[in-house]
Amino acid sequence: MPDGGWFGYQPNAGPFYSPGTAMDYWALGVQFLGLASLISSVNFIVTIFNMRALGMRLLRMPVFVWMSLVVALLLLFSLPIIAIALFMVTFDRQFGSLFFVAEAGGDPILWQHLFWLFGHPEVYILILPAMGIVSEVLPVYSKKPLFGYPAVVFAGAAIAFLGFGVWAHHMFASGISPVAQAAFGLSTMTIAVPTGVKIFNWMGTMWGGRIKFTTPMLFAIGFVAMFVIGGLSGVTHAVVPSDWQQTDTYYIVAHFHYVLFGGSVFGIFAGLYYWFPKMTGRLLSEKLGKLNFWTMFTGFNLTFAPMHWLGLQGMVRRTAYYPPEAGFDFWNLVATVGAFIIAAGVLIFMFNWWRSKKHGEPSGMDPWDARTVEWTTPNPTPEYNFGVAPTVTSLDDFWHKKYAEDSEGRPVRRPEAENTLTDLMETGINPPHPIHLPAPSYYPVLLAAGIPLVGWGIIYHTSFVGKLLILVGVLVVASAAFGWSMEPLEEPHDEHDDSEPSGGGYPSAEVDA
Amino acid sequence: MEAAAAMDHHDQHESTGIDHRKLGMWVFLSSEFLFFGALITNYLLYQGQPGFARPYPAEIYDIPFTSFSSFALLMSSLTMVLAHNALARHDQHATRTWLLATAMLGSVFLGGQVFEFTEFITVGGMKLTTNPAASAFYMLTGFHGFHVLLGVLMLLTLYGISRRQGELSEASGLNLELVGLYWHFVDIIWIVIFTVVYLLASVPAGVG
Amino acid sequence: MATHSGEHHHPTPLQYVKIAILLAVLTIIEVALFYVNEAADMGGWDAPLLIILALFKFVIVVGWYMHLRFEDSALSKFFTAGFILALILYAIVLLAFGVIALGG
């Protein structure tokens, strides 16, 4: 018998209904992952705000970087909430606290609030990076700048901001007050506005462009199309009475797979095909790539489209057995076949990756005639990234270094473009000044190794071994943290640094936030 | 923060003009509001609900005692800022003294919390497992205490470095500032807790 | 850099001590209010007063001891964002539970 779903609803996932250790591993595992994400979100925010190239104003940043920033902010503010909620579960299960124990006056609905306060921003954490990737890929293969760049950026930020105010739409069936239902229904519908803005901007980007249907482009277009379907079914849940019919049925499963598989996963695949040359210096096979896309696209729709009507017919989730007379069999068979087709698509991808890593066509520096500065470094990218830190003068800086406009606004390749590329390649491979990278350190690995020791110790804290594990884990974490913070951050200065052309510092790129 | 710091390299300059690690610390602290906010919400939800097993936290609070330990923590913010000020004036001796004083005041607070918990459990009869309000009380003040403990350890580390090296270098100066930010933050959280959890606590009608 | 140029605006040790005395006085008023309310019910007026006093202390420590008022405004924006977000989100949760109510 399974102990609980991924959202660990209380009291089902509590000590009484889920004895044993499974939910403890779940609670502490998610806790530690959350800690890691929190720390990296701080890192991302500082990096993006503070370590931009010269001239890289906030509104010149690639949309993918923007969306990474927004996601980091979402993580920063939502993870502490789930951290507390998970601590409460762990305390209830391990130390006998009574947060969710209804017999003692605890309130399981509190868990739902705290969980979805995190859980809803979390779904935007999953989708926004994919939206960023698609916003990079579509302009490149349409040979046009992103339509309405500032609108796409602000829509992303607006989705994140509104995303904090809609959590209770996951709880319409839990008996929250009619006022709360109306308010959260409305706030949920408003999310459709910035999302629609993005969809129209992506279509505007493709409109009138010279579209090249490469694999990344196919995945990106697939993303837009599938996400629209998922978005539309999403709005139907915002209508409370309709949600009461849909909640905990396969209709919900269909919805979130259209946004998270047809959405996020397709976006990630677009990114993998697009940036594979940056990792390896080679291209993934286009033939296999197209096969990969069409297999996954077909399999995906076969699997998840039937769940719409299965759910509306009343097929509920988390049930082990459906009687044949319910009439769900045929479309479930179709979904099963679809799932195997998806698996075939993923296998094709894995084969493509494995083969192209060694035998793929060499990509050169700029295989896609790209627009953004990451394509001004050699492929695969050296560990120091840029031989000389770039100076950015506009949005799509790399494109404007290669192309001018004719009188009708059509791009014309600059005669000096090839020389620019050769120069960039040269400085990328042979940096004019030595580049110092921070010395690698073993302490982070040691610290990370100590954390699960503490976790296991907590789960088995009643035994001697458990207590010992906690003690050892705490000592490992503490000494690693101490060693890490005492480690010199950088090697001593040497004479090269003073001659660095950027020695005067990046005069602060304006922060127009 | 450590990760951001590790990427800090002397020819990387700050686009915003704010030191990377300092920006990282403020960013982190702003997320701590959500952390303590959840704990306080949890406590506020349960503290006045009728029908729980007695005692409620508000029945057994010892306000004079908690006022005293809160005062110690409040004044540790003064000694912390004086340590920072002394280092800015290159007065290494005074820096060490104030660092130690801050750690001591922090320890007084922690000692007070240990005493309070012990009293509540043994004399007051309120354990973590007594009722949800008690669970919420211990979890909130316990996590705050854990933050204070980490702060004391960091202060003592700075003190130890200063003793061993005879001084705190420029780089450690920033560390002191960061530890100071963390320390003051833990103090302001307690300012809120002292008012909301202790002074404004209530017991449901018909109890006590 | 902004962090260093701001340094000389920082309060002097004497000012820090004065701030601490103010904080101490505010704390004494808080505890006194608590006992006044114990002795003679203030009809619910203790809560807003105590919260204002706590906020006052909070702002003083953040502004002066944490130097936020002498720092780049980006930092205060960040910090305030976290504070306001927490306040709003948890107020909604407490509203949903009926722990706090709109319009009494």
Question: Short description, anyone?
Answer:
The complex is a heterotrimer of chains A (513), B (208) and C (104). With 208 residues, chain B is mainly alpha-helical.
Topology record:
The complex is a heterotrimer of chains A (513), B (208) and C (104).
Chain A lengths: L21 H29 L12 H33 L12 H35 L6 H15 L14 H29 L8 H24 L1 H7 L3 H31 L5 H27 L16 H31 L37 H6 E3 L5 E3 L3 H13 L13 H17 L4 H23 L8 H4 L15
Antiparallel strand pairs in A: 1-2
Helix pairs in contact in A: 1-2, 1-13, 2-3, 2-4, 3-4, 3-6, 3-8, 4-5, 5-6, 6-8, 6-9, 8-9, 9-10, 13-14
Chain B lengths: L1 H5 L13 H28 L9 H4 L2 H26 L3 H33 L7 H34 L4 H30 L9
Chain C lengths: L1 H4 L7 H27 L6 H20 L7 H24 L8
Helix pairs in contact in C: 2-3
Protein model, in words:
- The complex is a heterotrimer of chains A (513), B (208) and C (104).
- Chain A has helices at 22-50, 63-95, 108-142, 149-163, 178-206, 215-238, 240-246, 250-280, 286-312, 329-359, 397-402, 417-429, 443-459, 464-486, 495-498, and strands at 403-405, 411-413.
- With 513 residues, chain A is mostly helical.
- A two-stranded antiparallel ribbon of chain A has the order 1-2.
- In chain A, α13 (443-459) runs antiparallel to α14 (464-486).
- The longest helix of chain A is centred in the first third of the chain and has 35 residues, at 108-142.
- The radius of gyration of chain A is 26 Å and the shape is globular.
- In chain A, a hairpin with a 5-residue loop joins β1 and β2 (411-413).
- Residues 493-513 of chain A have low confidence and may be disordered.
- In chain B, α4 runs antiparallel to α5 (92-124) and α4 packs antiparallel against α7.
- Residues 1-11 of chain B have low confidence and may be disordered.
- Chain B is mostly helical.
- By secondary structure, chain C is mainly alpha-helical.
- Chain C folds into two domains: 2-71; 72-104.
- Helix content of chain C is 72%, strand content 0%.
- Chain C has helices spanning 2-5, 13-39, 46-65, 73-96.
- In chain C, α2 packs antiparallel against α3 (46-65).
- The interface between A and B is large, with 58 and 52 residues.
- Main β-sheet of chain B: number of strands, strand sense, barrel status? none
Mean pLDDT of chain C: 88
Can you identify the CATH superfamily of chain B?
A: Cytochrome c oxidase, subunit III, four-helix bundle
Count of beta strands of chain C = 0
- Class inferred from helices and paired strands of chain C: mainly alpha
The biggest beta sheet of chain C is recorded as: none
Can you tell me the residue ranges of chain C where pLDDT is under 50 for at least 5 consecutive residues? 1-8
State the separation between the terminal residues of chain B, measured CA to CA: 47 Å
Mean pLDDT of chain B: 91
Helix share bin of chain B: over 70%
Count, helices of chain B: 7
Q: Describe the global form of chain B.
A: elongated
Total domain modules of chain C: 2
Shape of chain C: flat
CATH topology (fold) name of chain B? Four Helix Bundle (Hemerythrin (Met), subunit A)
Residue ranges of chain B: pLDDT <50 for 5 or more in a row?
Answer: 1-11
Element-level helix/strand string of chain B = HHHHHHH
How large is the radius of gyration of chain B?
A: 20 Å
